[in-house]
Amino acid sequence: MICILLGLVILGFGASGVSLVNLMLIHGSKYAKLAANQQLSTTTLEAKRGTIYDCDGNVLATSATVWTVYIAPQDIENEEEARLIADGLAEILDLDAQAVFEKTQKNTSYEKVKKRVEEETAAKVRAFISENKLGSIVGLDEANKRYYPNGSLASTVLGFVGDDNQGLGGIEYQYDTLLNGVPGKVVSSKNARGSDMPFNYETMVEAMQGSALTLTLNSYVQYCTEKHLEDAIELNAATNRGCAIVMNVNTGAILAMATKPDFDPNEPFTVTDPYTLSLLEQFKDQQNESTGDSSESDDADDAQTPYEKAYQQAMNEQWRNKAISDVYDPGSVFKTVTGSSAIEEGVVTEQSSFYCPGYIVIAGTRYKCHKAGGHGQQNLVNIFENSCNPAFIEIGQRLGVQKFYQYFKAYGLTEKTGVDLPGEAASIYYTADRMGPVELASESFGQTFQITPMQMITAVCAVCNGGYLVRPHLLKQVTDAAGNITQTEETSIVRQVISQETSKQMCTYLRSVVENGSGKNAYVAGYRMAGKTGTSQKISSVSEGERMKYIASFCGFAPADSPEYAVIVMIDEPHGANIYGSAVAAPVASAIMKDVLPYLGVEAVYTDEEFANINTTVPAVEGKSVSEAEAAVTEAGLSCRVIGDGENVVAQNPMGGSTSPTNGTIVLYTTEDYEPEKVTVPDLTNLGVSGVVSTAAAAGINVDISGVVSGSSGAVSYTQDVPAETQVDRGTVVKVSFRYSDSVE
Fold first, then answer.
1. Does a cis peptide bond (omega within 30 degrees of 0) precede residue 472?
2. 442 with 480, same domain?
3. Could you read off the pLDDT of 510-559 as tens digits, one per residue?
4. Same-domain check for residues 724 and 598
C-alpha cells in the first residue's frame, strides 16, 4: 500500500515537473507574452502631422491639439452613474444622450465618445469629471486636428485629411508618409477589468512629429490666380468649372494651381458651390415629388438614396483637381507644338508662304477656317497671329505622321508629367501606326486627342525656355522635426526637344500673337506677353441633337524676350456672349500676370506710349498748403480739385502713396469738418476707351484701364470693379477691364 502511495506521489510530482518544464522552459516566452498582454494596456499616442508651408514660409496647413473624450464602461458601478455620465457628456458634447448611454453599457475598458474636441469644450469635460469624481471612468486623450488657415486657398492642391488624420487628397495624400510622423505609445499595468493595478507600472514612447513640407506655391500668386479665375467662371457662366496654373518656365516650379469652384478643406464633406447646391436641391425636390419622401430607402440601412448619391458625386467633383485630372482637347494652343516642330525640322521657314481660301480638304475631309472667306496669303508669323487652321493642317501634312508623332512624344504628351500630386490623368491620342492623314490634320490644330492642362503648359514651357522639357513640381524642401532639411527638390530636365534658335523664333511669333493677333486680350503693359489662344469643341461629350460645347483656353508666358513665368487658363463650357479663348481665357491670363509679375520681381520695360499711360503714384499732400499741394500734384502729372476754403490740405482722395491713372484728378479737402463729396459710379461697360474716360470724368471718378494693347483700337470694356450706381467718394479709382471681341479660335 505504501509503495502504491509512494508511486502515485512520485508520478504526480513527475507530471508537475514535466508541466513546469514545459511551461517555463519550452513555452516560457510564449506564456510570458500572453501574461503581459493581459496585464499591460497600450495606448497609442498620435503623432503631430507636419506643417505645410508656401515658398515664403506662410502656413498652408497645420495641426493643433484637440481631445478624444472616452469612457471606461467596465468601471461604471450602476445605472444611475451611467445615466449621469450619458446626460452630462451629451449636453457638453452636443450628442444624443441615449447613444452615449448605450456606450456605457458595453463590456469594454475603453470606449470613444467623441473625437476632435476643441480645448474650450475639453475644459468643460474636465470640470464635469472633477465635480462628479469620475476620474477613473471618463477621460481625455490628446490628439491632433488639421487646420487650413486660408480656407479654400489651394484646396485642390493641398487636399485634406480624414478622421484618422490620414491624407485623402492632394499633397496631404502624396506625402502622407512624411507628414504623418511616427506614433508613440503608453504602456501601463491593468487588471482583467482594465483598471489600474495596485502597483504602478508605466512606460512611454514619445510620438515623433511628422516632417514639414515647403512647397513652391506662392500664396499671393495663388490668391490672384484663384480670384481672376473665379471671376471669369461667373462672368462667362461656365458650367463645368475651370482651372489655371502659373509655373516657372525654367525650373518647373509651380507657383499657383487653381480649380474653381473648389471646397474648404476644413469642411471637405460640405458642398460649397452655390450653383451645385441649387441643382442638388432641385434634384431633392423632384425626388420628393416622385417618392413622397427622399429620406427613406427600401434598401438596406447603408444604401444611398439617389439624392445622397448625387451629393456624394458633387463632393467628389469639388475635390477633383481639374488641372491634372481632367483631359481636354487643347485646340489652337497646341499650334505652339505643331509650329515649333515644323520649324525645328526645317519644313517651314520665315520665308514660307501659306494661302488660305477659307478651307482645306484632306483625304476627302473638308476643314473650315474660322474666318469666312479665309485669310488669303500669309507668312509664318501671320498664321500664328490669325490662328489659321488650314495653314497649320498644311504644316502637319508637311511634317508627316512619323515626325509629328516623334515631337508629340518628345514634348511629353504621351506620358504623365510626373508632377507630385495624386490622380494625374493619362493622355488619349493616336499612335503613329493608327494615325492617318485625317487624324494628322485634326491633331495639327489641337483636336481629336486629349491631354491635361498640366501637360500643355509643360510643353509650352519647353517651347519658350530654350527647348528643355522640365518636370513640374510642387515640393521645394522637406524639414524634419528637429529643423534639419532632409530633402530639396532640384530642377529636373527630362530632355531637350527643340533648339534654342527655334525656341527664340517661337517666342517672337507668340509675342506677335499677343500684340497683333488673336491673343491681344492677354496683353500686359510693360511685360511683353506672348502666347496662344485656343477654342476646342467637346465633340466626344455632345449627344446627338445637343448643342456643341466648347473649352476656351490660353497659354502664354512673359517676358517674351527672356521667359520666366508661364500661365495657362482653361474655362470649360462657357455660355456667355462669347465662347472663344481669345475673349474668355486670354483676359484672365492678362489679369493674373498683371498682378503677379511685378510681385515676382519681373522688371517692366515700357514703350514710350505705354510709359505715357502708366499709373502714377499719388503724392501725399495732407498738411501742405494748398499751393504746395497743387504744385506737387501737377508735378506728378495729375490734376486736382480743391474743396473748401482752408489754407492747408486736411484730406485727399486718392490717398498719398496709392496709384492713379495719368491725368487723373486728386480731390483735396481744406476744412477740418469736411464731408467727403459723394458721386455715383456710372455704367462703364460696353464702351470704348475714350467713352470710358469721358464718362468717368463727367461722373467725378478716375479709371484704371487694363487689357488694351498699346496703340490699337476696337477694345470694349466688359467689367468694372465697382458696380454701377454705387455711391463713392469723388476721386475714387475704378478699375475697368477691356477686351477685343474677335471670334478667333
1. no
2. yes
3. 999 999 999 999 999 999 999 999 999 988 777 777 788 999 999 999 99
4. no
